[in-house]
Amino acid sequence: xxxxxxxxxxxxxxxxxxxxxxxxxxxxxxxxxxxxxxxxxxxxxxxxxxxxxxxxxxxxxxxxxxxxxxxxxxxxxxxxxxx
Amino acid sequence: xxxxxxxxxxxxxxxxxxxxxxxxxxxxxxxxxxxxxxxxxxxxxxxxxxxxxxxxxxxxxxxxxxxxxxxxxxxxxxxxxxxxxxxxxxxxxxxxxxxxxxxxxxxxxxxxxxxxxxxxxxxxxxxxxxxxxxxxxxxxxxxxxxxxxxxxxxxxxxxxxxxxxxxxxxxxxxxxxxxxxxxxxxxxxxxxxxxxxxxxxxxxxxxxxxxxxxxxxxxxxxxxxxxxxxxxxxxxxxxxxxxxxxxxxxxxxxxxxxxxxxxxxxxxxxxxxxxxxxxxxxxxxxxxxxxxxxxxxxxxxxxxxxxxxxxxxxxxxxxxxxxxxxxxxxxx
Lengths: 83, 332
What we know:
- The complex is a heterodimer.
- By secondary structure, chain A is mainly α.
- Chain A has 4 helices and no strands.
- Chain A has helices at 5-20, 41-55, 61-64, 70-82.
- Chain A is globular.
- Chain B is of the alpha/beta class.
- Chain B has 2 domains: 12-178, Peroxisomal Thiolase, Chain A, domain 1 (3-Layer(aba) Sandwich), CATH 3.40.47.10; 187-330, Peroxisomal Thiolase, Chain A, domain 1 (3-Layer(aba) Sandwich), CATH 3.40.47.10.
- Chain B is built from 9 helices and 14 strands.
- Chain B has helices at residues 40-47, 61-76, 100-107, 123-136, 204-209, 222-243, 261-271, 283-286, 293-303; strands at residues 12-22, 25-28, 51-54, 85-89, 113-117, 143-150, 168-178, 187-190, 198-200, 218-220, 253-256, 278-279, 312-319, 323-330.
- In chain B, the strands form 4 sheets. In chain B, strands 1-7-6-4-5 form a 5-stranded mixed beta sheet, with helices on both faces. Chain B has a 5-stranded mixed beta sheet with strand order 8-14-13-11-12, sandwiched between helices.
- Classes of the chains: A mainly alpha, B alpha/beta.
- At the A-B interface, helix 2 of A face helix 6 of B.
């Protein structure tokens, strides 16, 4: 099932909000997970795992370091869904 | 045709007594943050650790094991000579051979079967699974299971991946016959594809062939280990509950390997444990003591008045290998 980036962003924002308590409105594409949202490496892994389950994709551990911003993650997941 | 005689043991086994030994020094985060350029706040946030226990330089793995073992034998109310097997779970006994178990057995005045189990942080639960099977098969009347580690011998103080988590200690139990079920089925396994995730920085032969390499110390790919433990171990724990024929509501205490409080919290979420279940968090003060962590955390629960004899505990160990093992036990 194809997905567009805004759908993925909405889903990812929900996951991040649940894990961190940050308001979904704050979770926008330009923001960096570590520098802007203050998400540490362990919370990031939780977010990645929940995203894998929600979007039915695989995100290998070695790719996680490249997901610097929310936008990077959205693009990655959207590409993985659409194949 | 000649037929062999085989033994049969009692129908059930149980843990008869518990003993522990922690490293003599309580080491607060402040003592370790310099070389890793960190802070007390960061260590607490990432791991939940305020202090870890560390042994004195002259205290070795067998010293810790012996102290815990003597206490366990005492609490079990048996004579040491009734022990038919000594299982020492350790990754920090500093000899490729002989194993630590026969040395420990000798110190206890025993000439029983004795072997080491190298299963890292799953070592204690591997030992319990083994001891349960040995007693019920008639292989041993009583089995001494010890998880003993001196992790501090193998840390690089500048390592930011694992060094500051690690502590030293030992926990021991005696497993013996029982009139009622005392140890549930062990659910265990491995994932050797994860061997690089928790390891020593160079093998002994690599060091032998290149003496310029730094002395091997422990290292982990922290986030990957966190992901595996937090999300893959919950189902294993639930399987152990199911195999024991009980439900999470029957469990009094959840005693996971004390790897990191963030892992423990995520596991509790994943398992969906009811609020009535006490969760062991000895890691806050003892640190991660590998194979010793579950018996040490068990003792802490008793000391804090949170469990009592006869309570059901769900224990799960997981770690380098990758290996894991879980079982429900009746607390002694």
